[in-house]
Design a protein that fits this description.
621 residues, 53% helix, four-stranded mixed sheet, alpha+beta
Length: 621
C-alpha cells in the first residue's frame, strides 16, 4: 500500500526507501492496480486495498470452469470444481477481505501456466508453439507479479510438463521434454550443491533466491543464528490431523478425493496427470515444509471433486437405484450441495480477526506526528510493513527481511534484561545497520563480535579496555563509533505475547550458539483453572503452574497481584482465549518492562503513548 500511495502522489522515484533493501525499479503490480483504481475513482486507497484481493482472486474461476468443462460431462463438473475451490478454507483465508497480498493472483497465474502446457500437449503442430509461447509468457507474468518466488513456483509446472514424457505425445514434444528434464535436473542440482560464483549474473540471482527460499522453508539456513523459519506462521508445517480441516473443512469431504482421482484418470489421463502431481506435491510440501503451500493444491481439490461427481454420473447408478437418469442427476446435484455446505460452514464460522486494527494505526501515526523526517523506527518484523505505511519512517525489519542475522539484531533489545544495552544497541544499529559485520571482519568471528558489542554497549566506560582486549584497530574512535545518536522510536504492540519468537532469538548465546527453547507458554483458558487468590494455574489435579505474579490487561487498565511462589509470571488479556506464562528470569526482558512493568520509567526510553491493551511508542533517548 505504501508504494501505491507514493505512486498516486507521483513520488515513487523520489521517495527514500523505508526498508533495508533496494527499492523495486518499478511499482509492484498489486500496488499499481490499487493506486490506479483509487486515482480513477473517489474510493480511498485503504478501501480499495480492503476489497481488491477477493475481486482479483475470482480469476481462478477461469481455470476451474475450464478444467471442469474439460471432463466433457456438461456444466455440473465446472460448477462443482469452481464451488469446491471457492469454499476451501485455506483459499478463503488467504483471499479474504482486507488481506492485501499477491496471493490474490498467485494461484490464478500459477494454474494458467498449467492450462497452457496442457493445451500445448494436446494441440496440433501449428498450435503447439503458440501454447508454449503462452506458457512462457505466463511464467514471466508470474515472475513479474510475484518476483520473490514466482520463478521457482513456475518451475514446478515446467518440471511436471517434462515429467509427462511418460505419457504418449508427439515426437517433437517428447524431445523437448527430454531436454527440459536434463536442463531442469542440472539447474536444481547446481542450485542446491553447485558454486553459484561460476554462474552468469542473471541466472545466479535466480539460483541464489531459490536456494535462500528453500533454506527458509526447510528451516535449514546456514547462519549460526537461530533460523527464522520458525518465526513465520505460514512456514509452520501442517499436522495430518489439521490437513482435512484446512483444505476441505472436514475429513469426510476428503474421502471422495481418491475416487475422484481414479475417475479423472479414466476420463482423461493426461489432464489427470496435470492435476495429480501438483496436488500430491503441495500436500506433501504443506505437511513437510509449511502450510503456505497448501493453497496451491486447492484447484486440484476442486477438480477431483468434480471428477468424483462425473464418476457417479457415468457409473449409471440410475439402474442401481431404479430411478430415471434425470432423477439420478438431481440426486447427485443434491449430494453436491450437501457436501458443499460442510466447507462453506467452516468458512462462515471461522473467526478471522484483523492482524492490526484502527487503534494500532493511530499508535503508528503518532510516530509520524512526533518524529522528524530523519527518524527511524525499531520494531519486530510482524508490523514492519504496517509501520512503514502509517508511521512513514524507515523500520528496522519487516516481513520481507528475515535473514537470521537481521532478526537477531532486531530481537536482542527486546529480549535483553539490560535497558542500557537495549538503548545503545538500538542507537548503534539504527545508525549503522551492518555494524556487526564490520566488527566481525576485524575479529574474524561472529560470536566474538556479538560478545564484544554486548559488553561494550552494556558498559560504555569499558570500551577502551575492551578495544585492547579484542585487539581492535586504534585508528578508529570507538567511543564515538559505538555510540551515535540518531533519532529512533521504539514500537511495541501487545501481540508480542503471541508472536513471541523474538524472545528465544534475542537470547541467542554467542558462546554456545544456541537459544533457549519456548520460554513463553500459552495457557488455553478453556481447559485450565486460574486461582487468582493462590496464584496458581491448574492444568489438572496433579499438574499446575505456580506464579509469582499475575498481570491482568483490559482496554483501560493494567493491574497485577504478587504471590510467594517462584517460577513463572502469567499474563491474562481481556477477551483473549489464552493466557501466557513466562519464566521469571525471562520476564526481565526490556519488552516486558516497557509493556507491563515500567512503561514510563524504563531508563533510556521516553514514553510517547501507551495503552496496555494495544501497546506503546517510546522515544529512544
Amino acid at each position: 500500500m505504501r508504494y501505491a500511495r507514493e505512486w498516486q502522489q507521483g513520488k515513487y522515484e523520489s521517495t527514500p526507501e523505508l526498508r533495508l533493501a533496494p527499492r523495486p525499479a518499478h511499482v509492484p503490480p498489486l500496488s499499481l492496480i490499487a493506486g490506479a483504481i483509487s486515482s480513477a475513482s473517489t474510493i480511498s486507497l485503504e478501501k480499495v486495498a480492503f476489497y481488491l484481493t477477493p475481486v482479483l482472486a475470482c480469476t481462478i474461476f477461469i481455470i476451474t470452469i475450464w478444467s471442469g468443462l474439460a471432463l466433457n460431462c456438461g456444466v455440473l463438473p465446472a460448477v462443482a470444481c469452481s464451488a469446491f475451490t471457492a469454499v476451501s478454507p485455506v483459499w478463503f483465508a488467504r483471499t479474504r477481505l482486507g488481506y492485501f497480498d499477491t496471493d490474490s493472483l498467485n494461484l490464478s497465474i500459477f494454474w494458467l501456466i498449467a492450462l497452457c502446457l496442457y493445451k500445448a500437449d494436446t494441440s496440433s503442430k501449428k498450435a503447439y508453439p503458440l501454447w508454449m509461447g503462452a506458457a512462457a509468457l505466463s511464467t514471466l507474468l508470474l515472475h513479474y507479479w510475484w518476483p520473490q518466488a514466482g520463478l521457482p513456483f513456475a518451475g514446478v509446472w515446467w518440471g511436471i510438463y517434462a515429467a509427462s514424457i511418460c505419457i504418449p505425445s508427439n515426437k517433437r514434444a517428447r524431445i523437448f521434454k527430454l531436454v527440459l528434464l536434463a536442463c531442469g535436473a542440472l539447474f536444481v542440482g547446481w542450485t542446491l550443491f553447485g558454486a553459484l560464483d561460476l554462474i552468469p549474473s542473471p541466472l545466479k540471482e535466480i539460483m541464489s533466491s531459490l536456494r535462500s527460499h528453500l533454506a527458509l522453508s526447510a528451516k535449514k539456513q546456514s547462519s549460526m543464528f537461530t533460523g527464522t523459519g520458525s518465526t513465520i506462521a505460514e512456514l509452520t508445517p501442517l499436522t495430518f490431523s489439521k490437513l482435512p480441516l484446512k483444505l476441505a473443512g472436514h475429513w469426510i469431504i476428503l474421502c471422495a478425493i481418491p475416487f475422484g482421482i481414479v475417475a479423472a484418470w479414466r476420463k482423461n489421463a493426461l489432464l489427470a496427470f496435470y492435476f495429480t502431481l501438483p496436488f500430491l506435491f503441495f500436500i506433501f510440501a504443506s505437511v513437510a515444509i509449511g502450510n503456505r503451500f497448501l493453497m496451491f493444491a486447492v484447484p486440484a481439490f476442486g477438480f477431483f471433486y468434480a471428477a468424483f461427481l462425473v464418476g457417479l454420473i457415468e457409473f449409471d447408478i440410475s439402474t442401481k437405484i431404479n430411478k430415471s437418469p434425470a432423477v439420478t442427476t438431481k440426486i447427485i446435484a443434491a449430494l453436491f450441495l450437501c457436501l458443499l455446505i460442510i466447507p462453506a460452514s467452516a468458512d462462515v464460522n471461522r473467526k478471522l480477526n484483523p492482524t492490526y486494527n484502527h487503534n494500532d494505526a493511530l499508535l503508528a501515526q503518532l510516530i509520524d506526528k512526533n518524529a522528524s523526517t530523519d527518524a527511524k523506527v525499531w520494531n519486530w518484523w510482524s508490523p514492519g510493513y504496517f509501520l512503514q505505511y502509517y508511521a512513514q519512517r524507515p523500520t528496522q525489519i519487516d516481513g520481507g527481511l528475515q535473514a537470521p542475522e537481521r532478526t537477531f539484531i532486531s530481537a536482542l533489545p527486546f529480549a535483553t534484561s539490560s535497558p542500557v544495552l537495549a538503548r545503545n544497541w538500538i542507537k548503534l544499529f539504527s545508525d549503522k545497520p551492518y555494524a556487526l559485520r564490520k566488527i566481525t571482519n576485524y575479529l574474524h568471528s561472529t560470536p566474538k563480535a556479538v560478545d564484544f558489542l554486548k559488553q561494550a554497549l552494556s558498559n560504555p566506560q569499558s570500551v577502551p579496555e575492551l578495544v585492547l582486549r579484542y585487539k581492535l584497530p586504534d585508528t578508529i574512535n570507538w567511543q564515538s563509533w559505538l555510540f551515535p545518536n540518531p533519532e529512533v522510536y521504539l514500537s511495541l504492540y501487545s501481540d508480542m505475547l503471541v508472536k513471541n519468537t523474538w524472545l528465544p532469538i534475542g537470547l541467542w548465546n554467542p558462546k554456545t550458539q544456541r537459544s533457549p527453547s519456548a520460554p513463553i507458554i500459552s495457557i488455553p483458558l478453556q481447559s485450565v483453572q486460574v486461582d487468582q487468590k493462590q496464584g496458581v494455574v491448574a492444568f489438572s489435579a496433579k499438574k499446575y503452574l505456580p506464579c509469582s505474579r499475575m498481570y491482568y490487561v483490559t482496554p483501560s487498565s493494567l493491574s497485577h497481584d504478587r504471590f510467594k511462589h517462584k517460577g513463572f509470571v502469567s499474563i491474562f488479556v481481556q477477551n483473549s482465549a489464552e493466557g501466557f506464562a513466562i519464566q521469571e528470569k525471562y520476564f526481565n526482558a526490556t519488552a516486558f518492562k516497557l509493556l507491563f512493568v515500567y512503561p514510563s520509567k524504563t531508563p533510556g526510553f521516553t514514553l510517547v503513548k501507551y495503552n496496555p491493551f494495544i501497546g506503546g511508542v517510546w522515544r529512544v533517548n
